[in-house]
Amino acid sequence: MTLSSSDRSTRSGVSPTLDLVHRPRRNRKNDWARRLVRENTLTVDDLIWPVFVMEGEKTRTEIPSMPGVERHTVDELVRSAEQAAKLGIPALALFPYVDPNLRDPDGSEALKSNNLICRALRAIKAEVPDIGLITDVALDPYTSHGHDGLLEDGRILNDETVDVLVRQALVQAEAGADVIAPSDMMDGRVGAIRAGLDDAGFQDVQIMSYAAKYASAFYGPFRDAIGTAKTLSGDKRTYQMDPANGLEALREAELDVNEGADMLMVKPGLPYLDIVWRLKETFGLPTFAYQVSGEYAMIEGAARNGWVDGERLMLESLTAFKRAGADGILTYFAPRVAALLNSGR
Ligand code: PBG
Hints:
It contains 12 helices and 12 strands. It is an alpha/beta fold. The protein has a single domain, classed as Alpha-Beta Barrel (TIM Barrel), CATH 3.20.20.70. Helix 4 packs parallel to helix 5 (158-175). The radius of gyration is 24 Å and the shape is globular. The site of ligand PBG has 11 residues, from helix 7. Ligand PBG binds next to helix 7.
């Protein structure tokens, strides 16, 4: 059998030429071209570092479900804040591990002006005045039942909780918090906190609202870190959002915007990028995403097992937030990724 001419050219290794006008691969052909057309860039300015503080001195303890993340005593936290400021990280988000003896059903320790979080705020402000300090408003580190609000007959009381949250926000603002971040998901708390801050002369304290916070299994390791994993009774589904809902996030965010939120946050992060995108598109407010403890644990755990390239996955996951429209990311990788970005690689 004789070969036709086209058969012959293919078989002899001369590649056929498709008649294509568009060849998107041209813009990817080498590193300089890829850099030239890159749409989104992660920078150190995008990072907020969530940190855990505990009682004691000169001590750091590992959190087994968050390998590489430690709880710090206040003095050690000041050292870490210095290091973060040197790296150029704009802000820290502080979370306390409260001594179990100080937890009670009402979370009354949250309102003490000399509690752990307030002492940490003052210590960092005194020594590292130029780093932003964000504090969490919610009662879960302080309640014996591990819920974010007041519990009565198995129900979380909304309005009574909001009253307490306003007082918690004031205690934090007095101790030097720059940004109040309510993560409790009670209705009406942003407006109440705004009014409370303004009445007390804290007009300049910002509010970063956890506008869309889902009832998520991705928070597991965080609850180990602040010691609520074992004590939490039931779950948080009567106040945190249903992971099946997207439009509801728009309604939640709209309320917070109208109540005076300066910035919005979505949490968890990577599984909820559609929500980040929708909030940013709809409201145009500074919008943040929280790459939460379970997301960190999945990446870092797999990396430590050699199953994925941890460094690349860290960068890829954080860049994905930027692509989705996030102005910044709360991430436990903050110091590591900042060092990497600063090294120019
Ligand atoms: C609680 C709070 C949680 C996180 C931040 N603030 C956990 C929860 O709602 O149970 C989770 C953060 C993380 O998982 O990294 N107010």
